[in-house]
Amino acid sequence: MVNRRFWLLVVLAVLVFSVAEVKPRWPISARVLDNRDLAFLPHVGSTPYLAMNVRFAPVDEFKSQVESQLNIALKSRGEAHVTVITPPEFQKVLRHHLTIGEINRIALELDIQAADLELVCLGRGEKLEPRQLLSTYFLVVKSQKLLEIREKILEQYVAKGGQAEDFDPEAYHPHVTLGFSKRDLHSSDGVTKNADSCIADLKIVE
Predict the structure, then answer these.
(1) Following DSSP, what letter does each residue of the chain receive, concatenated?
(2) Residue 183 and residue 40: Cα distance in Å, rounded?
(3) Rounded CA gap, 53 and 57, in Å?
(4) 139-164, pLDDT tens digit by residue?
(5) For residues 89-107, b (16+ Cβ closer than 10 Å) or e, as one string?
(6) Residues 156-179: what's their mean pLDDT?
(7) Measuring CA to CA, which residue among 200, 22, 53, 19 is closest to residue 119?
(8) Residue 110 has what pLDDT?
(9) Nearest to 141 by CA among 197, 69, 72, 57
(10) CA-CA-CA-CA torsion for 97, 98, 99, 102, nearest 10 degrees?
(11) In this predicted model, what pLDDT tens digit does every residue of 107-120 receive, in sequence order?
(12) Residue 23 pLDDT
């Protein structure tokens, strides 16, 4: 009898824990996945980086949903993209053997705007600063094509004299930033924009 009660309590505890762990599923337009007709936008200014241009309207619509559901207001840059080579990756490593123009050419040759995007979840990153909690919200994504572009960039970097260990193509957390409370947060803030940051699952709708 005691053993039966013990196992009944174990089963109930597992069920309660499982229910608590279920994340909501929020609808998001499938339009965010098809960006092949968008122009590639080179970022060659004072802070060069490589990015895939993403359709802004459905991203902005989803941002509004997040704001409504969570009763928050988020700042936005008014555009959407998936960063492929971050500014620090270029400045600290790649620029010593590759120009941003060469990196852009690799991206165009591999048709960056036709890259596959798989939506993983809605992610949130937070950082506590004096007197305020900073937050950033983003779509966590996966993309085999964007990973292949990073691998090709490494190949060219090594061909031009770089060391393979200087740049890891797989040390990569692709995402689309939705908005933030004050400023965007990055790895330098202790925020990793991957599946560990998920707060809601996504349901793709037409």
Answers:
(1) -HHHHHHHHHHHHHHHHHHHHPPPEEEEEGGGG--TTSPP--B-SSS-BEEEEE-HHHHHHHHHHHHHHHT---B--S-EEEEEE-HHHHHHTGGGT--HHHHHHHHHHTTGGG---EEEEEEEEEEEETTEEEEEEEEEEE-HHHHHHHHHHHHHHHHTT--GGG--TTS---EEEEEESSS---GGGT---SGGGEEEEEEEE-
(2) 25
(3) 12
(4) 999 999 999 999 999 999 999 999 99
(5) bbeebbeebbebeebbebb
(6) 97
(7) 200
(8) 98
(9) 197
(10) 160
(11) 999 999 999 999 99
(12) 65
Amino acid at the residue 70: L
Residue 51 contacts residue 87 (beta carbons within 8 Å): no
* Cα-trace Rg, the chain: 20
Is the CB of residue 185 less than 8 Å from the CB of residue 134?
yes
**Matching residue, tokens 């990055």:** 186
The answer, yes or no, to whether residue 6 has pLDDT greater than 50, is no
